[in-house]
Design brief:
Length: 555
């Protein structure tokens, strides 16, 4: 080990500084790392007093002789940082250094100084450098400087196999922002890569109209995770995203319309009311759109115009759409809505019976309680509760009527015959991410004489199936987190189609073409390969559900 006399070292250094002899000082500095920490502190103090023209190249050279002390390294960096501000041309020349440690330090300084003049050289580093650590520092520097010229070269690293470089490029593009950054970030979303989440969060962080438009388009992506991340981020952005999401309601893509309606409902801003009402007024042919539109209105502030739209929904031809309208009315109940309901129920005709049944099946408690003192409603409600309602629902609403003293009054109602139930009662599990649809399954399956159990989340259904296998499983296809195909694939690892028949509920839009990727959301081949027994398209009639169950039992 080289032994250095500290006093001699310092005397020689002071002499060289006075003589402004950079060459001799560099020769002396070679022994800097071999001195003790006290000597190193004294040396840096003397260099800090020297003119920049002298000190800068010496300190830069000193970087190549790394000290054994972190304190000293930090002090060298601090001195270089202070001097660099007034020596920008020299700093930029040092970024071209062949010494990696020196190169990294000056790139870092350029970033911290937000030195725009250094951008061309930093971009050149991205284009030519092979060392990942140096590239990482260069991207970080450009991130801080934040000029648009660096977007394209940074974007090249979105496709790097190096995890840290990908993350750094995503972060930098999000920070720099702008339409071009949004484009590069969105182009990198493939639907099958773990970095998709980072890309979507980065786009959302830019939070410009172009970013929101991309998120709005991603709502129609084939990847469940991409769709859900886009939806979640649009909801977080909130009211600002509404004007752009509303444009999706004009799309011919049914799934995109439905997802957009869900977003508008969850944002819960009144700005969405009129566009949704306009959509309802146009009476979309697809019942799933009508269902989601009413469901969304249930989350929005009520207005007199909303009341008219919701009341109209109770007369829809499809039962599950009527359920959504009833639940929305229940959440926004007002004197106007109560008055409208009475007008619809007053005739006691078939439509009136359907409306009362819908109120009960939707478990619209506020509506039921508000009308429970009206003889006409009670008479129609009793007929349904006694003959057709699910036992748990019947018991619940009978208790409400009892508490209100209804059975102490003379109520005239016509007892209707209960439908004939099949001889064998099956245990049937139903999975759907909509509570209203689960209510509908419970009603329909009970009406058919079976024993239904409903699950809002696929994970819960999987756990229940492994604990106690049902006779038949009914699952929706298009669900968040775990979709129907993934659910079936999981179940088929334990039960084959004859052990546990599975009916999958789909909509025609599930097989539509995604405009972003030009391929189907789900292919029929993919669904059948998963191991389902039957497909049933939504909306469906009671007879169609009964026929599907019967076919499953015969296979």
């Amino acid at each position: 080990m080289v032994t250095i006399n500290s006093d001699n070292f310092m005397a020689e250094l002071v002499f060289c500084i006075k003589q402004s002899d950079v060459v001799k000082t560099k020769a002396l500095i070679q022994y800097f790392a071999h001195t003790d920490i006290k000597t190193q502190r004294r040396a840096l103090y003397e260099l800090s007093k020297a003119p920049d023209k002298f000190a800068y190249p010496v300190l830069a050279y000193l970087l190549e002789t790394k000290s054994s002390y972190d304190e000293i390294d930090d002090k060298i960096y601090s001195l270089l940082f202070q001097i660099s501000y007034n020596n920008r041309e020299q700093l930029i020349s040092y970024i071209k250094s062949k010494d990696n440690r020196r190169k990294k330090v000056f790139i870092k300084i350029a970033g911290e100084l937000e030195l725009v003049d250094a951008v061309p050289e930093l971009i050149e580093v991205l284009r030519t450098e092979k060392d990942a650590d140096i590239i990482l520092v260069a991207i970080s520097a450009l991130n801080v400087i934040g000029v648009k010229e660096s977007i394209a070269p940074i974007a090249e690293y979105l496709y790097s196999n190096h995890h840290d470089l990908r993350q750094a490029s995503i972060s930098a593009l999000s920070n720099i922002g702008g339409d071009l950054a949004v484009k590069y970030l969105s182009d990198a979303i493939k639907g099958d890569d773990e970095k998709d989440a980072l890309l979507i969060y980065a786009i959302a962080g830019i939070n410009t109209d172009s970013a929101i438009k991309i998120l709005s388009h991603l709502v129609g992506h084939t990847s469940v995770s991409v769709r859900n991340l886009a939806i979640d981020n649009l909801i977080k952005i909130g009211a600002k995203s509404i004007p752009i999401i509303i444009e999706n309601l004009k799309s011919k893509n049914v799934d995109l319309i439905i997802s957009s309606l869900n977003i508008l409902g969850r944002i819960g801003d009144k700005a969405a009311i009129t566009p949704i009402q306009m959509l309802i007024h146009e009476q979309p042919e697809n019942a799933n759109i009508r269902f989601t539109a009413y469901e969304a209105l249930g989350f929005l502030p009520s207005t007199p115009k909303t009341a008219i739209s919701l009341s109209t929904g109770l007369e829809d031809s499809e039962e599950f759409v009527r359920l959504a309208a009833a639940k929305a009315i229940d959440k926004n109940l007002s004197k106007i809505l109560i008055s409208g309901l009475k007008n619809l129920i007053e005739p006691r005709d078939e439509q009136a019976k359907n409306i009362v049944a819908t109120i009960i099946d939707a478990q619209a408690d506020k509506i039921f309680s508000s009308l429970a003192g009206w003889e006409v409603f009670v008479a129609v409600a009793l007929n349904y509760l006694i003959t057709n309602a699910h036992p748990s629902i019947s018991e619940r609403y009978m208790k409400i009527l009892e508490d209100k003293g209804i059975f102490g009054k003379k109520i005239k109602y016509v007892k209707e015959e209960k439908p004939v139930q099949p001889e064998k009662k099956l245990t049937i599990y139903a999975v759907d991410d909509s509570k209203l649809m689960l209510n509908l399954y419970m009603k329909k399956l009970h009406k058919l004489g079976h024993n239904p159990f409903t699950f809002l989340h696929a994970e819960q259904a999987i756990e229940a199936i492994y604990e106690s296998k049902p006779d038949i499983l009914i699952t929706d296809l298009n669900m968040p987190d775990i979709n129907g195909v993934q659910l079936v694939q999981e179940i088929r690892t334990a039960f084959n189609p004859s052990d546990l028949p599975i009916i999958m509920i789909t909509t025609q839009s599930d097989f539509g073409t995604n405009p972003l990727e030009g391929k189907p959301y789900f292919s029929l081949e993919e669904i059948q390969k998963a191991g389902i027994n039957l497909l049933l398209h939504k909306p469906f009639k009671d007879s169609e559900l009964a026929e599907a169950i019967d076919k499953c039992l015969k296979k």
